[in-house]
């Protein structure tokens, strides 16, 4: 699928200088750009930084904020188009040549792709047409530099810290040991996860959490009968979605087998052989590049393959939980199934009040204005009747109106 992207700062409004805070961050970002370009030995750094920043500001002007209601209405964004149609929408891109090279394939003009930001892509195509190629090249190199600079020497990390201090108030840099642990976790997540699970999560706990989930799903099923605004057709579909909801707890089963973990990082054969994760014992930066290349090879090989609904997005040690609407799947890694949220020795009342609230929260994502757009199989299908959906939106607006009355640090909730 093809979507909007291209901004280095986390939110488009930071580029627009709409208030004093964003102006300060924008000034710090420009200083950061100039420092990195200088460290890389570039000439005319002020001019290049200004040109790249102006291009990003143009991109910010055509980017829709992720907090905008439009970005939550997946049905309105989702468009299947052929490569030929995509080429007509964005004539400055050479899509077939690009995709053929990335995927080592030969795509026809009738190949279908999902386009999630039609207006954005059309405007980006126009922007590319009027922007000098020198600036486009510098911008693309800058985007690579930003991603990789945290893995370079101390002066690069110092520059990143100065920007982080302005944006997030981080006074102290992470110690090198914590940086190494963070990177090992990022690049060898499942291997570290096996060690974490061995020490901190048992198969018995996995079964107990599964029972907690089933209990809370049962209560939600009962609560559906109490919704006087929901008609029977929608209620049946809601129950079906609950029954089909996949729940993954603790860790993937292969994690208990060391040879299976090794295979995650090994070379693979088949019609499109790929190299494994190649570790260079002398050069940290080379390992980062190898890891990125390995991840790209993993992604590329998935083209035309059926979606693996058993795949985990996070390693077991992640202190998080998530719901994926396009798989109708809830995932609770072992990292969040720890005290104080969960302990097999706690009274069940504490576990219901702790991890139970997280489970209930993730369950509701299957029925909110985002996850509710997907059916029991994870397909983007409108399964509500118009009558029930209209009443749902009306009741949701009541909650919005209520919280509109509250402010935190002079910001409306």
Give a verbal description of the structure.
This is Endothelin-converting enzyme-like 1. Pfam families: Peptidase_M13, Peptidase_M13_N. Its cofactor is Zn(2+). GO terms for molecular function: metal ion binding; metalloendopeptidase activity. Keywords: Hydrolase, Metal-binding, Metalloprotease, Protease, Zinc. With 413 residues, the protein is mainly α. The chain has three domains: 12-78 and 116-173, no CATH class; 199-252 and 313-413, Collagenase (Catalytic Domain); 254-309, no CATH class. Helices cover 54% and strands 6% of the residues. It has 18 helices and seven strands. It has helices spanning 20-39, 45-62, 69-72, 74-77, 83-89, 95-103, 118-130, 133-148, 154-168, 176-187, 189-200, 203-224, 232-244, 258-264, 284-300, 348-353, 355-365, 386-403; strands spanning 79-82, 112-115, 246-250, 322-324, 329-333, 407-408, 411-412. The strands form three sheets. A three-stranded mixed sheet has the order 3-5-4, covered by helices on one side. Strands 1-2 form a two-stranded antiparallel ribbon. A hairpin with a 4-residue loop joins strand 4 and strand 5. The longest helix has 22 residues, at 203-224. The two termini are 32 Å apart.
């Amino acid at each position: 699928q093809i979507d909007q992207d291209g901004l280095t700062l986390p939110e488009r409004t930071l580029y627009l200088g709409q208030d004093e805070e964003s102006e300060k961050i924008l000034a710090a970002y420009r200083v950061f750009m100039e420092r990195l370009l200088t460290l890389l030995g570039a000439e005319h750094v002020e001019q290049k930084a200004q040109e790249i920043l102006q291009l990003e500001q143009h991109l910010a002007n055509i980017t829709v904020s992720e907090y905008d209601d439009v970005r939550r209405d997946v049905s309105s964004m989702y468009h299947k188009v052929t490569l030929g149609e995509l080429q007509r929408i964005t004539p400055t891109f050479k899509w077939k040549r690009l995709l053929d090279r990335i995927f080592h394939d030969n795509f026809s003009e009738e190949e279908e792709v999902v386009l999630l930001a039609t207006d954005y892509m059309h405007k980006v195509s126009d922007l590319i047409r009027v922007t000098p190629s020198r600036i486009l090249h510098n911008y693309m190199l800058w985007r690579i530099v930003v991603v990789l600079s945290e893995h370079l020497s101390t002066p690069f990390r110092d520059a990143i810290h100065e920007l982080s201090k302005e944006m997030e108030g981080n006074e102290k840099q992470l110690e090198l040991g914590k940086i190494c642990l963070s990177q090992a976790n990022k690049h060898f997540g499942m291997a570290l996860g096996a060690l974490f699970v061995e020490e901190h999560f048992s198969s018995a706990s996995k079964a107990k959490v599964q029972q907690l989930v089933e209990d809370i799903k049962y209560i939600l099923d009962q609560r559906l009968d109490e919704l006087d605004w929901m008609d029977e057709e929608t209620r049946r579909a809601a129950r079906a979605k609950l029954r089909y909801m996949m729940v993954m707890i603790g860790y993937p089963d292969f994690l208990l087998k060391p040879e299976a973990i090794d295979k995650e990082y090994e070379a693979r054969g088949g019609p499109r052989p790929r190299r494994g994760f190649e570790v260079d014992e002398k050069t940290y930066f080379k390992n980062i590049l190898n890891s990125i290349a390995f991840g790209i090879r993993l992604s590329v090989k998935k083209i035309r393959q059926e979606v693996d609904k058993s795949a985990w997005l996070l390693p077991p040690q992640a202190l998080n939980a998530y719901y994926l609407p396009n798989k109708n799947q809830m995932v609770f890694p072992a990292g969040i199934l720890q005290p104080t949220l969960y302990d097999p020795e706690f009274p069940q009342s504490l576990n219901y009040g702790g991890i139970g609230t997280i489970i209930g929260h993730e369950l509701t994502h299957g029925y909110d204005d985002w996850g509710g757009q997907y059916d029991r199989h994870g397909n983007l299908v409108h399964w509500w009747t118009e009558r029930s959906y209209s009443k749902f939106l009306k009741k949701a607006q009541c909650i919005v109106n209520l919280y509109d009355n509250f402010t935190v640090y002079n910001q409306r909730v």
